[in-house]
Amino acid sequence: MHLLQRGSAVHSRTAKQQRRPSAAAAPLVVRAVAEPTTRPAEAAKRNGAANGNGKPKPSHFLNVIPKTAWEKGIPPVMGAHLMASGAIAPISTSKGAGLGVEAHQFQYPGEGNAQVVVFATPKNASKGLSKLIAASAAAAIAAKGSFTLVLSGGSVLNTLSALAEVKGVDWSKWWVAFVDERNVDHASPDSNYKGAVEALLGRVPIPKEQVLAIREGLPVQQAATEYEGRLLGLPAGVLPRDDEGLPVFDLIVLGIGPDGHVASLFPNRPELAATGPWVLPVSASPKPPPERITFSLPVINAAKEVMVVALGESKSEIVQRVLEVQALPGALPAQLVRPKAGRARWVLDALAAQELNIGEWENLKDFPRNK
């Protein structure tokens, strides 16, 4: 669908993120081969010589082996026989196609749909994002009496300043957490908490005890454990759990890095595959500062709603890659953001969306591409 707002064009489309194909069971044996021809004249007559140059058309047939050579199942051990080359064949203990193999450490969580909303300018995107967040807050407060907002760091925080101008917000019901945080003092310019205070939290009356900042001065492992402990201590009326025991935040707002990372989940890193703790320590981040804590991917995907915000021309290449090019799982962490029971929404401006081919997304044969 296309949405038009007065003063700025807003496009909203749904991007289908395809599930990674699973390995299918192999058929018995089916081969298409050219039939040998020893008498060209007879072959041409039989095939009709319909190609117009006097040469016979190639004929094909299917050689189907309808019955397995192993009537009692695949032998547990094969090989060790003498090959024509004179070498001994290696021993194989295969149990069959796709059986007994170790799964890739990164897996797509399943098929997902993401709504993409494009605003004309960064200013319009900031106002639009604020209205979307305020609407999510009103719905959550009406449903359960509280609203949990989870923030990322970086440039995303700058887009939240317009939220302080929204009228009619019941700030007393808001709870704010951080999807990732640098293990630094709150006064450090690297602190996401400091950035959030300057952009929003210092301008609105959210109770201080309802803003969950990282505990200062702890080793990174202890900082992650302590932060998870505080989340576990929140009442179910504020932070419900799903059927797997994961926390269900009302809204998580993410940014995206040029390498496709979200939160502090970087490409092909072990933290991206973690499924146990809610909060993970990151001790050697590829992006400084090196020590961080981050929500795990299952916690992000358990949220009721996830928004990915990308503004400006510098984001256009990674936005196009994530939304239109299917990468190997783990190569682009943002492609693994697929809320299992919630909604994903991308908030972009025109410059960030300039390389997208939104009008062609309905052609499922071309999108998502693999290169």
Automatic annotation (TrEMBL):
Belongs to the glucosamine/galactosamine-6-phosphate isomerase family. 6-phosphogluconolactonase subfamily. One of its GO terms (biological process) is carbohydrate metabolic process. Residues 1-60 are annotated as: Disordered. NCBIfam families: pgl. This is 6-phosphogluconolactonase. It comes from Raphidocelis subcapitata. Its EC number is 3.1.1.31. It comes from the Eukaryota. Residues 20-56 have a biased composition (Low complexity).
